[in-house]
Amino acid sequence: MPAHDVAPGLSMSPVMIRSLLRHPVRIGRMVRGDEGTDGVGLLFAAVSKAMTPGTVQLAEEWQPHLVLHEGLAAAGAIVAGRREVPGVLVDALLFDARDLFHAVARSLGRTPLSHADDALPEPVDALVAVPASLHERARIGRPMRYVVAAGHGDVPEQFTRRGTRPILLVSRSTVDDPRPDRLMTRVVDAARDADLDVVLVRPDRAVARRTLPPNVTTTDWLPFADVLPHVAGVVHHGGAGTLMSALAAGVPQIVVPGAGDRTKHSRLVAARGAGLAVPLDELTSATLERLATDPELRATAGEGAAEIATMPDPSEVVGDLEALVR
Question: In this structure, what CATH number is given to the domain that contains residue 37?
Fold first, then answer.
């Protein structure tokens, strides 16, 4: 599939800082992990404004008959309105995509779409990739199986050889944060007394400078879809992609509450029973060992994987989308 950068050089950090300076209370709530959507709406309204000119120009060239966009990507809705074609939400997050869309729309206000200032057009449908058992209320839309992006490749030998101890993966966010990230440091400290092996994926600078315990190793990027079935558990920051990838593989997870949507994610996983919500300061060797050995966590995570497997493959929903433009 072709890709096109509609906002070359766009950096999230300056956008976030400007939004924080203008709306410190709302953005501050988001940074603290508040479950509201006002802060994220303000932030992604600013992102959408930066992306809209390039997206509109691209749409003029491609002349799409249908626009798919996430709830936070209001530029997609703007293009759908300008082109007078259907817009469809892709809901792969654990916050309801329509709630996120409306939060961004409120912050954008009235946006020029064609020849007049019209309200942001509502999506005509939604593809929902989150299993029903994981979120707190029913969703309106078409179910679609979550597929791990770019998740296939050679599995390192350390994950496939038979060993006597379980292996845990530790993954951190790919989004830069000016604040210190203590996730991997805390896991390394807890792993010293744990009867298991820990693999740090893309270790941060603080950990890379340390002498690690014998049961802790590091690695670069991994093909998660192929590696996850070989591990006993995943410890991560609470991003939707890592959370859903672990659930799709039936792997128990520790989700550390944090900024943005991560606190809610941790609570949803814990409520489902597919993992644990553990603040960093409470992460211990006993917590890691429980993640690796608790049969109930493993069984419930497996139920989540089975549920995802029954959802329609993305290729199966293409016909439904085509019907929207006939």
Answer: 3.40.50.2000
